[in-house]
Design brief:
With 304 residues, this protein is of the alpha/beta class. It folds into two domains: 4-224, Spore Coat Polysaccharide Biosynthesis Protein SpsA, Chain A (Alpha-Beta Complex); 227-303. Helix content is 52%, strand content 12%. The chain is built from eleven helices and seven strands. A seven-stranded mixed beta sheet has the order 3-2-1-4-6-5-7, sandwiched between helices. The chain starts with a strand and ends with a helix. Bound molecules: guanosine-5'-diphosphate (GDP) and magnesium ion. Magnesium ion is lined by residues 87, 89, 91, 198.
């Protein structure tokens, strides 16, 4: 098997980082050619010292630059062919690393550790809702079934990193990478993993990070939706609302004036509502089919 590089971005994780490295060593030592790289991202606590103690390679950013920058630093210093990303908070058990690497060797392009089956209870409720919604959106955009598109526990080939890398500031990085992989027709494999309660304080801000995630997904959705689809979808709420207005006017006439002054309004209401709903469904279907065809196209192109 190819050499495995485990990259651990860490920001103020003095409680977790030592345990994480220790567990990985225990799992892989003597059995797999590997290296462990901790990237201390300008921590203000004892993360650097704790990481150093483990004997892992520790890189350091002078100032906090964010998780994405730390991942890039780690990968650029790595020497293995297989990259595994994990967190420094002791949530992702190390025992899955060999299985991840195996999947890559067997042809997977991106392996995701999915928390949905076994670890959902340890994701805070608010984040869990976000996780489900975002994973549905990712699945729709990418035309693949993804149960946990935001997981931080993932593996890919170092040679693929440039094509998987995306611009992002914070924790929307994982989401965007998953979408990009799906869009490019990469073979994505999800492995169910256990997810433990984190050690130390969370760095995720559900509101700010959730907002950034939603914004990036929206911009992907807009750029992914064809002009024809938009032409179908955008008029539908207006037509629907117009239908409601005609309906309300008819009701108002019937109730207060007891007579229908505009006898054709109810007919218009029914027509507009039915028309807008059918147009909307047609737009969605059209969108889905074009996306699916695009994905098939990309997969075929990638095979060549
Ligand atoms: N290098 C670096 N890592 C960060 C930063 N913010 C968060 N992390 C790391 O990213 C991982 C995920 O953060 P966490 O707070 O656990 O978010 P969650 O796993 O989504 O709940 C942890 O290992 C953090 O140490 C940062 O600014 N820089
Ligand atoms: Mg975490």
């Amino acid at each position: 098997m190819e050499r495995i590089s485990i990259i651990i971005p860490a920001y103020n994780e003095e409680k977790g980082v030592g345990k994480v490295v220790g567990e990985i060593k225990e799992t892989l030592s003597g059995k797999y050619d590997h290296e462990i790289i901790v990237v201390d991202d300008g921590s203000t606590d004892k993360t650097y010292e704790q990481a150093k103690k483990t004997g892992a390679a520790v890189l350091r950013h002078e100032h906090n630059q964010g998780k994405v920058a730390a991942i890039r630093t780690g990968i650029s210093h790595s020497t293995g062919g297989i990259i595994v990303l994990t967190d420094a908070d002791y949530t992702y058990p190390a025992r899955y690393i060999p299985a991840f690497a195996n999947e890559i060797e067997n042809g997977a392009d991106l392996v995701l550790g999915s928390r949905v089956e076994k670890g959902l209870s340890n994701i805070p409720t608010f984040n869990r809702i976000g996780n489900i919604v975002f994973s549905m959106l990712i699945s729709y955009i990418g035309c693949v079934r993804i149960s946990d598109g935001q997981t931080g526990y993932r593996a890919f080939r170092k040679a693929d990193f440039e094509r998987l890398d995306v611009s992002a500031r914070g924790l929307e990085y994982e989401t965007k990478m998953t979408v990009k992989a799906a869009k490019n027709g990469y073979n994505i494999v999800e492995l169910p993993i256990e997810y433990r309660p984190r050690v130390g304080d969370s760095k995720l801000n559900p509101i700010a990070d959730g907002y950034r995630m939603l914004r990036s997904l929206m911009s992907i959705m807009m750029s992914e939706t064809s002009f024809i689809t938009k032409t179908f979808l955008i008029p539908t709420p207006i037509l629907f609302l117009a239908g409601i207005v005609f309906g309300l006017v008819s009701l108002h006439e019937k109730i207060t004036l007891k007579v229908l002054e505009h006898q054709y309004y109810p007919l218009l209401t029914v027509f507009l509502m039915l028309f807008s709903v059918s147009l909307f469904s047609f737009g969605l279907m059209f969108d889905y089919v074009t996306k699916k065809l695009d994905r098939i196209d990309e997969r075929l192109r990638k095979r060549k």
